[in-house]
Amino acid sequence: MKAAARIDADWARRPETAAVMRALLAAGKQAFFVGGCVRNTLLGVPVKDIDIATDARPEEAARIIEAAGMKAVPTGIEHGTITVVSGGIAHEVTTFRKDVQTDGRRAVVAYSGKLEEDARRRDFTMNALYADAEGNVIDPLGGLEDLRAGRVRFIGAPSDRIREDYLRILRFFRFHAWYGDADCGLDPAGLAACAENAAQIERLSKERTTSELLKLLEAPDPAASVMAMEKAGVLAHALPGADPSAMARLVTLEREHGLPPDPLRRLAALDADSWRESLRLSRKQARRLERISEAARGDADPAELGYLLGLDHGRDAMILRAALAGESLSPEDINRLEQGAKAKFPIRPEDLMPCYQGKALGEALSRLEGAWIASGFSLTRDDLLERAGCG
Ligand code: ATP
Ligand code: MG
User: Fold this and answer.
1) What would the mean pLDDT of 234-253 be, rounded to a whole number?
2) What pLDDT, in 10s, does the model give residues 225-237?
3) CB within 5 A of ion ligand 2: which residues?
4) Is residue 266 part of a domain?
């Protein structure tokens, strides 16, 4: 096949990655880089993970890799994937597959010996780009042209492909948010098929929905995609009650204040408590989302937010509050936030002992802390001890 283009990437040349390709090729197997690593290199944007496609069956690929002195971990063996760890770097090696059956929750696949079949079971043309070990790009389905045009296009009939795996609805909006052309908008046929099947998103596992939604929200500017999701009726099924109208303002404020994209801050801007039922966040993520959402909805002043939440969460809460209210954020507010984040409560438990003990000690400390916050941190240690009445 004629090479459609060439990539010349540091990650492909590094010895750890070259060794994986060399081992498979030396064993007489086919091996190609595929998916995000090829797509992002062509776009000149950072590559997240390395996916390799091969005609070797997973057990065979594992044997070849181990014989070459690298580690093969059966991370997704049921869908044909092993993780090859070479010099500490992970590579997802997946056997060529073809879709054979559909259950809507996950595509059911069989192994194949042909790259062309493997390409057709992938989701979008821009994700079906391959490159050989020398960097020659193989483009069996016209993905390069779509990639250059910023067009996220389903491979085959969008409705059929969505019915094989409803996660592709969310992936459609995710890839548009990252790589789509803002002026052209979303591909009409894909969009119509997503709208038609929107309700089926609820059949997906919470883990898959959450991971896809967070990747979408991490895009530099997900506002247009999230608005389109709402219009197509997709957002209401992914996250009932979500309101995308503050997203564009949030992104503007983030940029004004030099904050990098943050999927949880964006999720909070959708202002939907249904995440508790619809999504599966880690305990740490859930806690952060709760804290910044609650603080944004409350009326604590910036200094208090800085003190109670710390600089980062406090700033998240303030930016979120401003985005939800359609207001801007003054430098004065930021100053007060920073002051609050630096403030140190001048009383330690020992200062109130033995005058207070046990439960009464805890209560006295929190009463004094409340008074100190309310004073704008102006009450001194002596003022506070006097209030405590320990003399
Ligand atoms: P990222 O930069 O986020 O890693 P990616 O394109 O590599 O983007 P992955 O989720 O890592 O996305 O998937 C790797 C490749 O596997 C995709 O490019 C696509 O070809 C294929 N793929 C992944 N999930 C699906 C799916 N649900 N349906 C069809 N193809 C899929
Ligand atoms: Mg990937």
Assistant:
1) 98
2) 999 999 999 999 9
3) 35-36, 49
4) no
Cα 262 from Cα 328, distance rounded (Å)? 19
Residue 81's H or E segment, with its range, is strand 81-86
Ligand 1 center to residue 135 CA distance, Å?
20
Can you tell me which residue has the tokens 């919470």? Answer: 206
**Distance (Å, whole) CA 389 – CA 379:** 15
pLDDT one-digit tens code per residue, 131-184 = 999 999 999 999 999 999 999 999 999 999 999 999 999 999 999 999 999 998
pLDDT tens-digit series, residues 196-223: 999 999 999 999 999 999 999 999 999 9
Question: What integer pLDDT is reported at residue 3 of this predicted model?
Answer: 61
User: Which residue type does 302 have?
Assistant: P
Residue with tokens 């003190």: 307
Boundary (domain end) residue, out of 116, 148, 180: 148
Domain count, the chain: 2
Sequence-distant (≥ 6) Cβ neighbours of residue 142 within 8 angstroms:
125
The answer to whether residues 43 and 36 touch, using CB atoms and an 8 Å cutoff, is no
Give the mean pLDDT of the chain: 95
| Domain presence at residue 246 | no
Give residue ranges with CB within 6 A of ligand 1. 35-36, 48-49, 51, 107, 122-123, 127-128, 165, 167-168, 171
Span from the CA of 247 to the centroid of ligand 2 (angstroms) = 26
Q: Are 50 and 11 in contact (CB under 8 A)?
A: yes
pLDDT, average across residues 126-135: 98
Which ligand is nearest to the Cα of residue 36, counting in written order? 1
Residue among 11, 81, 98, 127 whose CB has most ligand 1 atoms within 8 A, to mutate: 127
Residue numbers of the domain that contains 356? 346-388
136 part of a folded domain: yes
Top mutation candidate among 122, 163, 201 for ligand 1, by most atoms within 8 Å of CB: 122
pTM, 2 dp: 0.91
Listed residues 123, 148, 173: the one ending a domain: 148
Here the CATH number for the domain that contains residue 51 is 3.30.460.10
